[in-house]
Amino acid sequence: MLAMDYRGPYRVRAVQKSTPDIEHPNDAIIRVTRSCICGSDLHLYHGLVPDTRVGTTFGHEFTGVVEEVGSSVQNLKVGDHVLVPFNISCGSCLYCQNQLYGNCHEVNPGATAVGGIYGYSHTAGGYDGGQAEYVRVPFADVGPYKIPHDLDLDDAVLLTDVFPTGYQAAEMGGVKEGDTVIIFGAGPVGIFAAKSAWLLGASRVIVIDQLDYRLEFVKRFAQCEAYNFREMEDPVVFLKKITDWQGADVCIDAVGAEAAGSAMQRLTGVKLKWQAGSAIAVQWAINSVKKGGVVSIVGVYGPTGNLIPLGNAVNKGITIRMNQASVKRHLPRLIEHIQAGRIKPSEIITHKIPLEEVAEAYHIFSSKLDNCIKTILVPPSEMH
After folding, report:
1. Per-residue pLDDT averaged across 227-232, rounded?
2. What was the pLDDT predicted at 304?
3. Is the C-alpha dihedral spanning 5, 69, 328, 373 positive or negative?
4. What's the CA gap between 350 and 352, in Å, rounded?
5. Radius of gyration, CA atoms only, the chain
6. How confident is the model at residue 111 (pLDDT cuts 50, 70, 90)?
7. Is-contact 4 131, C-beta < 8 A?
8. CB 184, CB 284: distance < 8 Å
9. Is there a contact between 1 and 31 (Cβ–Cβ < 8 Å)?
10. CA atoms of 271 and 256, how far apart (whole Å)
């Protein structure tokens, strides 16, 4: 089969690999119909995630048709078209029972924190991902979700991670009616966080980024205020000023380890890797939220420490919440929003690129070329 293959930082290519087989009675083999490149994949691509091994296939956002099921699988049958949450979860451990599917204790036994994630290094279990023609899906009765007949496939693939992650960012922030919400990052997750803040009742939504084309996009898609931090002398002072010097009720970090805005943070977190990525977005969020407010973090960071102003957080009495999104928990609500016409997730897709051209697709997405917001990879069998 054709699959994306990681050869080292900034080096990926499409190669022929062996088609995966059923390895356990609970497995399914999925023929991929859509896969995405995620902003989190860029952390792998740039060499910032530990134990990302040469030969890995990335891709934790994908849909596909069930080609084969193991002998124990009961909820799926051959021919079902499913969306596959990026969380690999067993469905029965303490964490899954509490719908913390991103923290499953059985699918990544070497870890004490994150559960299993498709195509996301051996720190997340070492599973191959969906930027391929076929993928093995373990615990197939738990993760895959049958796509409703009236749901567009391009909308469905965005339910595997990016829309649920943006929604959970707002949910963890406890956004309620009348709140002011500031979101750092106008990438796909930040865009969906902005839209989700409105769905949860916010009265004002502000997005901060450094790329004008992304700011213009989020203003159109999420009907929010949007500002370029490169035009500010001090982003925190600016944000406090436009919120009556109080700060926002909720601040969301939708950027993660490669945040721009501080030369020191970039040097120590991205270039030298002395900390687990540049934490300037977290710093701005802590300093821009009001006293007693909430900071929600969905940006990806590495497993070691970061330079954040913990004393400020303590003295302001803020709540900080963070986690990998538990996709499966959100799907019924988000599908309802789509079917009711409140949101059309596929509107953020700017590029559809054949899987054969995956190297060029990563280059475009990584370098923010051609006003790229979200890239979909289409396998050969789906190119019509």
Report:
1. 97
2. 77
3. positive
4. 7
5. 20
6. confident
7. yes
8. yes
9. no
10. 15
Q: Are 7 and 13 contacting, i.e. CB atoms less than 8 angstroms apart?
A: yes
Contact 194, 218 (CB under 8 A): yes
Among the listed residues 261, 198, 199, 203, the one whose alpha carbon sits nearest the alpha carbon of residue 227:
261
Amino acid, single-letter form, for residue 187: G
Q: 2-161+326-382 adopts what CATH topology?
A: Quinone Oxidoreductase; Chain A, domain 1 (3.90.180)
The runs of H, that is alpha helices, within 119-257 are 153-157, 162-172, 188-199, 212-222, 235-241
Domain edges within the chain: 2-161+326-382, 165-322
State the first-to-last Cα distance of the chain, in angstroms, to the nearest integer.
Answer: 19
Q: What percent of the chain has pLDDT over 90?
A: 93
Homologous superfamily of the 165-322 domain (CATH): NAD(P)-binding Rossmann-like Domain (3.40.50.720)
pTM over 0.85: yes
Using 50, 70 and 90 to split pLDDT, how confident is the model at 240? very high
Confidence of residue 312 (pLDDT cuts 50, 70, 90): very high
- CB count within 10 Å of CB 344 equals 14
Token couple for 45: 């691509």
pLDDT of residue 37: 98
Report the C-alpha gap between 288 and 24 in whole angstroms: 49
Residue 26 three-state SS: coil
Q: How far apart are CA 328 and CA 290, in angstroms?
A: 32
